[in-house]
Amino acid sequence: MGNTFLSFALLIIFHFSMPTSSMKLTTILTDQSALLALKDHVIHDPENVLTTNWSASAPVCNWFGVSCGSRHRRVTALDLTGLGLVGTLPPHLGNLSFLSLLYITNNSFYGRLPAQFSNLHRLKYLSFGNNNFGGEVPSWLGSLTELRRLFLYQNNFKGVIPFSLGYLSKLEFLTLFENQISGSIPSSIFNISTLQNIYLSYNKLSGSIPSGPHDLLSLELIDFSSNNLSGHIPKDMFDYLPNLKELYLSVNLLSGRIPASLFKCKELQMISLAYNKMEGSLPIEIGNLSMLQYIYIGRNHFEGKIPKQIVNLTLLVDFDCSNSNFTGSIPDNLGNLRNLKILTLANNSLTSSRMSFLFSLTNCRVLENLLFGINSFISGELPRVVGNLSSSLEEFSASACNIRGSIPSEIGNLSHLINLELGGNKLIGQIPTTVGGLEEWQSLSLEDNKLEGSIPPELCHLNKLAFLFLTNNKLSGPIPACFGDLTSLRQLFLDSNMFSSSIPSTLTKLNYLLILYLSSNSLSGPLPIDIGKWQVLTSLDLSNNQFSGDIPTGVADLKDLTHFSLSNNRIMGSILESFDELLSLEFLDLSRNNLSGEIPKSLVKLRYLKYFNVSFNRLEGEIPDGGSFENYTIESFKGNEALRKDKLPTQEDMIPLGTWRRFSYHELRQATDGFNDSRLLGNGSYGLVFQGNLQDGTVIAVKVFKLELEGAFKSFDVECDVLCNTRHRNLVKVISSCSNDLNFKALVLEFMPSGSLDKWLYSNNQYLDILQRLNIMIDVASALEYLHHGNATPVVHCDLKPNNVLLDEDMVAHLSDFGIVKLLREEVSMIQTMTMATFGYMAPGDTSNQTPCLFFHFQCKRSMCITKGIIYVKI
Ligand SMILES: *[C@@H]1O[C@H](CO)[C@@H](O)[C@H](O)[C@H]1NC(C)=O
Ligand SMILES: *[C@@H]1O[C@H](CO)[C@@H](O)[C@H](O)[C@H]1NC(C)=O
Ligand SMILES: *[C@@H]1O[C@H](CO)[C@@H](O)[C@H](O)[C@H]1NC(C)=O
Ligand SMILES: *[C@@H]1O[C@H](CO)[C@@H](O)[C@H](O)[C@H]1NC(C)=O
Ligand SMILES: *[C@@H]1O[C@H](CO)[C@@H](O)[C@H](O)[C@H]1NC(C)=O
Ligand SMILES: *[C@@H]1O[C@H](CO)[C@@H](O)[C@H](O)[C@H]1NC(C)=O
Ligand SMILES: *[C@@H]1O[C@H](CO)[C@@H](O)[C@H](O)[C@H]1NC(C)=O
Ligand SMILES: *[C@@H]1O[C@H](CO)[C@@H](O)[C@H](O)[C@H]1NC(C)=O
Ligand SMILES: *[C@@H]1O[C@H](CO)[C@@H](O)[C@H](O)[C@H]1NC(C)=O
Ligand SMILES: *[C@H]1O[C@@H](CO)[C@H](O)[C@@H](O)[C@@H]1NC(C)=O
Fold first, then answer.
1. 703 is in an annotated binding site
2. Residue 464 lies in a domain
3. Which end of the chain is less congested by CB atoms within 10 angstroms, N or C?
């Protein structure tokens, strides 16, 4: 206020006393008051720049960030970049009529841009980048026709790109990335013949790219990536962009082929089309773009071969064609690409005879990342020549490529390797001892192979190793005691191997361990007494071993633990009261041990606990009440003879009521148009199945039991019993049941949109390929395996046939119709299994001359049912 008044007073005095130079002074004072207005609008000035330096007693032209013209002394530039200022911009700045540069970059200004700025007709350089400005991108920007650079990036601008920007006929840089701008790209901006760089990435732009030809001789960079652009890239887009060097169109919804006009851009150094829906091949003309350094075309639907012309691109640094549909062999002369640093071929259908491409790649002496995993047709052994790959190699990723044979010891030569991925192959033999030399190693993935022998102690030298994945191999021997030296370890997966002996006491030295999986081995002995040292552990799975002794009290110190399984061991003693301190727990499985005593009441405090299982122990007393315990079913507690059951949910409530949606007869009637025939999906052994549409749009299947049939009541009970007590991805899920005493009983089931397997097998117009058949087979076998072994009471389906196998939208099979299952309760199991010794299931032979292509067959032997999926495929 004071300043403004003073300026005003001065202004009047000068007006009267010095009339000749009044205009000049007036305008200098205008500039001063505009800047003081800005100072007033700044509410936070962390470096006190404006507060201390912008003083009315000093000439404006000496103020920090201000430059003036040498003759007229008017403010020509205001650069306040990176001062951490917070506030708004006052309209007064629109009075700085000589301003040619206004840089407000890297502050925290907010609010809208005042329309008065449209008076700044001399502005050439304008940046509001990296602030919190909002509102629409103003269309008056189009009147600042002297603009060369317009930077609005990293703000919260909304709305569309104004068509008027096309009037900025001298614009060279248009930079709008990281805003919330929507709508389509106006064709007008391609009319700006002076444009050099357009950055529109990370917005919400949609629609298609304006069609060409765009006659922009200066244009060097187009960045439209990370938007929602769709449609084809216009054919003529690149017709007259002879100087284009960088093209970024990745992460959009673009479709169609790469337009031929692109290959006219001989200066191109960067092509980024990744994450789109583009198709067709990578044209051989790619080899003509001899300046190319970066090609990113992964995550599209490209197909065909990688053109051999690619090896002419001698400047190429990075080539990524991953996650597409490329076929044919990997070129054998990629070694010509002497500048290649990153080669990503992963997740295609590429082939290579004996991995011959690796020999040539040894010539790429600066190669850092080589990824060719998930190419199931590669196959062959890993040649010893991998040891001759570039010594700069940091990543070698070849998972799921059908690699056979053993890991060559030469891998130990790759002294800068950080990440090695060879999971999901068919590797045999031992882990080579030479790995001990790979001091930079941080991640080693060898899971899902057939590696054997013991872990070489040399592995313990890798003191940067953070991730070790050895799951599902045939590794044996003890866990090396020297593992305690791997102090960087964060995740250790040794599960599903043949490790024996006890957990070495040194393992608790691994203070940073987050995940430890040791399940399904032959480990024994007590749990580490100082288990509490694993202070940041979030997941601990020790299930399916022979661990014994008590649960150490230190467990209570594992405050971050969310997942804890000790299932199927020989753990004794009681469940510690202090488990109630493990407040992060979501999953706790103590089933199948020798635990005794009571379940501590305090466990009800564990409010995130979603899964709790103490079944098959020797627990006694009452099941605690309340908290998350309200949600557990009998499954969690069964097999504990002395556990008092009166509090347990009754059969009707077996799926916790809270999670059930209740339906009235009326609702179901409405959903199925009064059980209309047109809604009929099928006819089960004891009921009709209707499709129902609930008012909220959910589609359900309603199985209405034919109560007039003898056995239907029992069937309802049995089906309820089975479905309510079993949960498996390949069983049809029950949503609710509805029963009004005597005359209506129904089950509300998950709707399976793809119908029954029967329908698919005998249809003339629907067809399942071999892979789908195999998957269905596996799904059904998994369901049976679960029914037979996954529960205390084995369940035998007894009516397995294609029309009881239902398919969801992803063609995952779900077994249904449990109306005549047999529950092999312990007391009768012997007798029943005897009679079932030759029991088998087979789909009824068909009547037409079309042989069913899929049979199921399994046998029950002794007290165990063994599931054997046998597929007869008709060719
Ligand atoms: C204001 O900053 C400018 C540029 O850094 C400097 O030359 C001038 O001396 C400063 N004035 C005051 C009063 O601090
Ligand atoms: C803005 O700040 C970022 C991060 O501190 C920095 O990288 C960038 O160069 C700055 N921009 C300008 C124009 O100073
Ligand atoms: C581009 O400029 C030409 C000539 O200046 C004009 O006729 C045309 O309408 C403009 N197109 C767009 C989309 O602005
Ligand atoms: C992207 O566009 C599609 C249609 O082309 C639309 O369905 C989707 O909602 C859009 N996504 C965003 C984030 O705007
Ligand atoms: C690409 O190069 C080949 C030979 O080097 C030439 O015949 C062809 O015309 C070129 N294609 C284009 C589109 O320039
Ligand atoms: C790959 O090609 C096959 C057959 O040409 C097609 O069915 C499949 O959808 C394609 N996959 C992708 C990811 O484009
Ligand atoms: C690739 O280079 C070779 C030799 O330098 C040349 O003969 C061939 O024509 C080039 N191919 C293309 C497509 O440019
Ligand atoms: C492989 O690529 C396809 C198609 O882009 C993608 O859907 C799939 O998730 C990828 N698989 C992996 C394991 O990345
Ligand atoms: C029981 O489960 C329901 C549904 O999953 C959930 O909303 C509720 O919070 C759970 N109750 C407790 C006490 O955990
Ligand atoms: C110019 O800016 C406007 C606000 O946009 C003020 O209201 C005017 O007082 C100011 N003019 C002068 C001469 O300072």
1. yes
2. no
3. C
Task: Work out whether strand 380-381 and strand 596-597 pair parallel, antiparallel, or are unpaired.
Answer: unpaired
Q: Catalytic: 799? A: yes
Q: Which of 750, 776, 805 is the last residue of a domain?
A: 750
Residues sharing a CB contact under 8 Å with residue 16, sequence separation 6 or more, in sequence order: none
Query: Residue 199: is it exposed, middle or buried by C-beta count within 10 angstroms (0-12/13-18/19+)?
Result: buried
Taking CA atoms only, the protein residue closest to ligand 4 atom 12 is 228
Report the separation in Å between the CA atom of 312 and the middle of ligand 7, taken as the mean of its atom positions: 6
Task: Give one DSSP letter per residue of 740-806, joined into a string.
Answer: -TTS-EEEEEE--TT-BHHHHHT-SS----HHHHHHHHHHHHHHHHHHHHSSSS-EE-S---GGGEE
At 51-106, the pLDDT tens digits run: 999 998 899 999 999 999 988 889 999 999 999 999 999 999 999 999 999 999 99
Pocket test for ligand 7, best of 309, 312, 315 (most atoms within 8 A of CB): 312
Q: What is the pTM of this model?
A: 0.72
Q: What are the tens digits of pLDDT across the range 776-819?
A: 888 888 788 777 776 666 777 767 778 888 898 888 898 887 66
pLDDT at position 843: 33
Angle between helices 2-17 and 22-41 (to 10 degrees): 180
Q: Which residues line ligand 8 (CB under 6 A)?
A: 299, 323, 347, 374
Q: What is the CATH number of the domain that holds 733?
A: 3.30.200.20
- Within this chain, do residues 569 and 648 fall inside the same structural domain, yes or no? yes
Given a cut of 50, whether residue 622 has pLDDT beyond it is: yes
Pocket test for ligand 10, best of 92, 93, 118 (most atoms within 8 A of CB): 92
* 219 Cα to the center of ligand 7, angstroms: 28
Which residue's CA is the closest to the ligand 7 atom numbered 6? Answer: 312
**Boundaries of domain holding 681:** 665-750
Collect all residues with Cβ–Cβ distance below 8 Å to 336 and sequence separation of at least 6. Answer: 311, 312, 314, 360, 363
Specify whether 720 is located in the same domain as 764: no
Asked whether 818 and 723 are in contact (CB, 8 A), the reply is yes
Atom of ligand 7 nearest to the CA of 290: 14
End-to-end CA distance of the chain: 92
Structure tokens at 179: 């805003």
Flag whether 137 is in a domain: no
Say if residue 767 is in the same domain as residue 705: no
Give 249-297 pLDDT, tens digit per residue.
999 999 999 999 999 999 999 999 999 999 999 999 999 999 999 999 9
Number of H helices, E strands in the chain: 9, 55
For residue 829, is pLDDT > 60? no
Look at residue 765 and tell me if it is in a domain.
yes
Q: Is the peptide bond before 114 cis (omega within 30 degrees of 0)?
A: no
Q: Which residues line ligand 9 (CB under 6 A)?
A: 627-628, 630-631, 658-659
- The C-alpha R_g of the chain, in whole angstroms, comes to 36
Of 684, 753, 743, 694, which is closest to residue 719 (Cα–Cα)? 684
Task: Output the pLDDT for position 871.
Answer: 30
Catalytic choice (799, 808, 817, 846): 799
Give distance in angstroms: CA of 3 to centre of ligand 10.
Answer: 14
Ligand nearest to the CA of 117: 10
